[in-house]
Design a protein that fits this description.
Length: 198
Amino acid sequence: MLPPLSSSFYRHDTVSVARALLGHLLCRESAAGLTAGIIVETEAYLSRDDPACHASCGRTRRNAPMFGPPGQAYIYFIYGNHFCFNVVTAPAGIGEAVLIRALEPVDGLELMQRRRGQGRSVLELTNGPGKLCQALAIDQTLNEHDLCRPPLWISAGREVEKEAVISVPRIGISRAVDKLLRFYIKENKYVSRRKSQR
DNA sequence: GGGAAGATGTTCT
DNA sequence: GAACATCTTCCCT
């Protein structure tokens, strides 16, 4: 197994971490086997001046992990069907995180395909926050998990040039829709493609 | 290849 | 009871 990034990687400002995560490898080990993919799309959620952030109205039972130590997982259930996986950033107590929106599958493609349902193209395995959670079997039981160790961790991947990273408005939110806090690798085929709505 | 709408359940008011 | 950091199917061009 590739060595995980150290916890200090996550302790910096959230926008920097959201950009820096692109190109790194999200790895998930389970009884069924290993699945992993390169992070190609992220979104930053900030504590100040960002009403779209779960932590913007203060601490609740649901968003409590966002106020915990940087480098832990914040996972929540949404729309009755899906999980979203976030990485907690900034020093503990601030309440910021990065949503992982899309991966480029690298390892365990067959297992991902089985979890996502038969006849699914490789492009559709992990090109969305709910999809990648299903493909990697990420659920509530991993909430608050330390991402510096198995069974869910992030390790150093390939270098991504600054010029190859685009920043655009975030997707699927109703507030603060104009902020350029969505980041992805230019021309990567696995980026989720939806236009913003509502 | 794109827009509309329904499914589904947890959290918070 | 409303809102929700989504996905899928169906129908249109």
